[in-house]
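My main concern about presentation is that the manuscript never shows what a single data entry looks like. The format is easy to grasp once an entry is in front of the reader. For illustration, here is how one protein appears when written out as sequence plus structure tokens:
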Amino acid sequence: MPTSPRQPAPQNCAAIDFGTSNSAIAIPDGRGEMQLVELEPGFRTMPTAVFYRADVPEHGPEPTRWYGRAAVAAYVDGFDGRLLRSMKSILGSPLVEQGTDVGGGRSVPYIDIIAGYLHHLRKQAEAASGRPVRRVVMGRPVFFVDDDPQRDAQAQAALAEAARRVGFADVLFQYEPIAAALDHEQSVNTEQRLLVADIGGGTSDFSLVRVGPERRLHVDRKDDILANHGVHLAGTDFDRHVELAAILPLLGFRAMGPARAGETPREVPSGIYFDLATWHLINTVYAPARLAEWRNMRGWFADPSHHRRLMTVLEDRLGHALAAAAEQAKIDVATQGLAHIDLSLLERALAAELAEPQAAAAIEADLQRIVEAARVTVRMAGLAPEQVDAIYFTGGSTGLQPLVDRIAACFPQAQRVRGDRFASVAMGLGVYASRVFSA
């Protein structure tokens, strides 16, 4: 296998970690080493979020879009418009070419929204480097779409097209867990069989990779990748289950209708609640026809407060606020063991609590599938569990300690290594970009 000494990265290249929840971009510094761009003051990663403003004309002097933390803040502060998150989860679905209402009577295709976000990242990189950025390595999950190679290929092609549309002439891809392995490899002094667990917002990806000081001299690492596997489950799925378990029952989810003589009580239809708990479907519940339908559903509810709260959410467009509350509750449970969820925006003094056992039960099925994906990866590599030397945990959802513990328990001989949950993939993509564009 050919080897290559470490060479400075070309000055016109970049590496982008376009994540479901957060994104980052790395560029060469003055010495040719890759470094992360400060995308917002004090932050090297930025929420993958766009807020389309409905209060300004599309071609006027003021910006029509805000990104990252500014986008989230605009939504929280009540600006008129549409917040979009988890855009990556659209890739590989028929929705990617469809338009979505962004307020002010405007409809924008999802792929254009993704392209606009990538354009913002590219402009940030060019402002930091002082030169055009034309070549890029982009991270991708092991599977954009589970068990459908054709749709998976379509997802990568759509992302590549979006990148070219905003000015990247040369677009390459690397698996996100492989990038994490390359980042970890910079600090190891012995050869390891490394299981990378990259569990982010949209996917849980695993790779079994040989790493070591001799191997990092190689540009072509195909022979060191022993197995890749993943499932389309991660942090946003956890948030969804938390919302369904702790918040939406206060709005009538799984509630029974009134008892009537001679009739069996009916459960309130649940489709509206599943849409409310799914980021890219939340906006669909505000359609006039659905509003009219649910205004007329009062008779389905035995508890009038359930219907009243649901209509408050639909009429005041509070679905994204509930999703954000669920995400925060997940974080609070992971760090404190208990979450107090303030729902006073629906009703004075309304609140919910989520304890660790309830949260664990809500996401148990997902945890089982993720842990099994780790086991499958090692079996695909032809290794026994005790032959794994180290597990490298990265991605925002590895902050959930029970998940980390259950994966680690499958490989008791392996050393646990914690990467930067939000930056290690971007840094590893930077390592790969430096090597591949210098080769």
User: Anything to note?
Assistant: The domain at 13-190+420-438 is CATH 3.30.420.40 (Nucleotidyltransferase; domain 5). Residues 1-5 have pLDDT under 50 and may be disordered. The longest strand covers residues 192-199. Residues 44 and 239 are 24 Å apart (CA to CA).
